[in-house]
């Protein structure tokens, strides 16, 4: 694995885009939280190892076979704790700002938990304040313009191009989840976290058939799968998923215990086996998508 640096000169390209390497299918996938280039203007005070806990480390690597089956794969290179591309730009805690935001803000439950557009807290259950300062509005606006907005523009371009060409598009929003996800979300649960959680915002962003196909592909390979528990999906799939227009968007969360040491972020002995399983799952999904448009 490449060493992760605490300070990378800014600005740098906000994402890596891999286009189909086989006959293209209208399957567009993104990993918005696996970025590990930490900008030198971050200005955080939290210990770096605690800050890294926000990463979906290596998710884009686990799914690296997607372009080989005809899909598009977009991965953020910036870290989500710096600015989170899976949040709307008005999902900001006004208490973090040095002066008033120029337009109305709409903080969500994520902001209340300290993980809105600009993260307030890091570490297990958000016990580590990220900043010892208020953030100037101009600084937050610069993060939006340099990283958040280009990421969304790239996603929009790929989604629109696929839909224009094929008359339909399927989107996978790829993530990983910590073992203590229920605790972090302040949710009481009487059952353990599943290996995979599929989120379709309670059936509103993807057809039931597509969600069921992905779930079954995972279950056949021995994984436990939950639907919308505890993750339903946030801004990206809410914006993209419109099944009535043949625009299907599904969030996929992987239990980090399957492939990494959550303390060191190092890949575990199970990494290669999981990557191989997801290669087979990617092929099944691509075959399904191809069948829907031919």
Describe the structure.
- Strands 1-3-2-6-9-7-8 form a seven-stranded mixed β-sheet, with helices on both faces.
- Helix 6 (about 210-220) runs antiparallel to helix 8.
- It has a single domain (about 15-294), classed as Zn-dependent exopeptidases (Aminopeptidase, 3-Layer(aba) Sandwich), CATH 3.40.630.
- It has helices spanning about 50, 60, 110, 135-165, 180-185, 210-220, 235-240, 270-294; strands at about 15-20, 25-30, 70-75, 120, 130, 170-175, 195-200, 225, 245-255.
- With about 290 residues, the chain is of the alpha/beta class.
- A hairpin with a 5-residue loop joins strand 4 (about 120) and strand 5 (about 130).
- Helices cover about 30% and strands about 15% of the residues.
- It is built from eight helices and nine strands.
- The protein is globular.
What is the string of SSEs from the N terminus onward? EEHHEHEEHEHEHEHEH
Structural class: alpha/beta
| Structural Rg | 18 Å
The CATH first-level class comes to: Alpha Beta
CATH architect. name: 3-Layer(aba) Sandwich
- Gross morphology: globular
From the 3D structure, determine the CATH topology. Answer: Aminopeptidase
Number of H- or I-type helical stretches: 8
Q: What is the strand tally?
A: 9
Tell me the count of domains. 1
Unreliable parts: none
The profile of the biggest β sheet is: 7 strands, mixed
Kindly report the average pLDDT value: 96
How far apart, in Å, are the first and last alpha carbons?
A: 40 Å
Percent in strands: 5-15%
CATH homologous superfamily heading:
Zn-dependent exopeptidases
Please state how the strands of the largest beta sheet are arranged side by side: 1-3-2-6-9-7-8
